[in-house]
């Protein structure tokens, strides 16, 4: 339950707390989607293209991406209660972190991810067939989002802050 998250998650003072969601095409026959992750403190944003929204596919995508970072930068994941995140317990075990589930119909409880999904929608509007998105194009668009200075980050970019955190934790 999301109410059991500790104060460090809410305060955004420590790095390593992630929000997860999916971004779907919205219509058509394509089942392709993106699994999206954002680190709460730095607002560093990741999206992974997937062929479908099955729980196993989402779990494998997230477990494939997050271990690329040091374990101290992956402490918690907050996701919704949709069927795409039904295997949250397996994610906890495989990533050695804690998973929290947002309350039903409370997207604001993972609002950072919802906001950044909105920015990604500028590149991939609803109705776009996400199965046709080239990985290089997705990577470039994510780089643009992460390179944008933000007022909430004191006019730093998410990429700058994430790079700082990576260097700080691993030296």
Explained architecture:
- This protein is α/β, with parallel strands linked by helices and 171 residues long.
- It contains six helices and seven strands; from the N terminus they run H-E-E-E-H-E-H-E-H-H-E-E-H.
- The strands form two sheets. A five-stranded mixed beta sheet has the order 3-2-1-4-5, sandwiched between helices.
- Strand 2 (33-39) and strand 3 (45-50) form a beta hairpin.
- Helix 2 (55-65) runs parallel beside helix 3 (88-95).
- The mean pLDDT is 91.
Unreliable runs:
none
Distance between the termini: 34 Å
Strand order of the largest sheet: 3-2-1-4-5
Q: Which percent bin holds the helix content?
A: 25-40%
Described by the principal axes of the CA atoms, the overall outline is: globular
| Share of residues in strands | 15-25%
**Radius of gyration based on Cα positions:** 15 Å
| Biggest sheet layout | 5 strands, mixed
Count up the helices: 6
Q: Based on DSSP secondary structure assignment, what is the total number of beta strands?
A: 7
Element-by-element helix/strand order: HEEEHEHEHHEEH
State the secondary-structure class. alpha/beta
Mean pLDDT: 91
């Amino acid at each position: 339950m999301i109410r059991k998250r500790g104060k460090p998650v809410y305060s955004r003072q420590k790095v390593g707390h992630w929000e997860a969601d999916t971004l779907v095409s919205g219509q058509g026959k394509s089942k392709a989607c993106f699994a999206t992750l954002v680190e709460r403190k730095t607002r560093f944003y990741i999206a992974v293209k997937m062929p479908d929204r099955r729980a196993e596919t989402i779990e494998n995508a997230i477990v494939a991406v997050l271990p690329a970072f040091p374990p101290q930068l992956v402490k918690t994941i907050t996701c919704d209660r949709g069927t795409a995140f039904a295997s949250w317990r397996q994610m906890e075990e495989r990533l050695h972190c804690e998973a929290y589930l947002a309350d039903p119909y409370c997207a604001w409880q993972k609002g950072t991810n919802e906001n950044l999904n909105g920015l990604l929608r500028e590149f991939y509007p609803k109705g776009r067939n996400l199965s046709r998105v080239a990985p290089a194009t997705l990577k470039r668009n994510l780089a643009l989002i992460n390179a944008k200075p933000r007022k909430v980050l004191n006019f730093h970019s998410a990429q700058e802050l994430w790079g700082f955190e990576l260097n700080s934790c691993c030296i």
